[in-house]
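Late entry, written up from scratch paper. The run itself happened at the end of the previous shift, but nothing got recorded in the book at the time, so transcribing now.
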Amino acid sequence: MPAILGDERDIPYRTTVPMITPPQTSLMKIRVRYYHKLRQVTGKNEDVLAFPAGERQQTISDLLAELTLRHPGLAELLPSLCFARNGEFAPVSEEIADGDTIDLMPPFCGG
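Output as recorded:
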């Protein structure tokens, strides 16, 4: 009897290889808004960045490191910037969470 394609009799042995699926990495999405001169430097009003939600909590400082890789012109402005997390002023050591909005603002002046 001729072998039929797919017929198990024409296969000398069969091995089962378990499917390996990569672990699902959840992402933390952060919205970054730029003001005044920062809009000129980045060419945008805002960005949305995704960080892996991992063992170590991300901070505004980590976010700034990523932003300066994407927009090198930001590096020289960082020392004079103000930061807000969800509408509240925040230091660079402030931890960020999924869904946060981080505002990067030049120094304020006025009276």
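The helical segments are 37-42, 60-70.
(Scratch paper discarded after transcription.)
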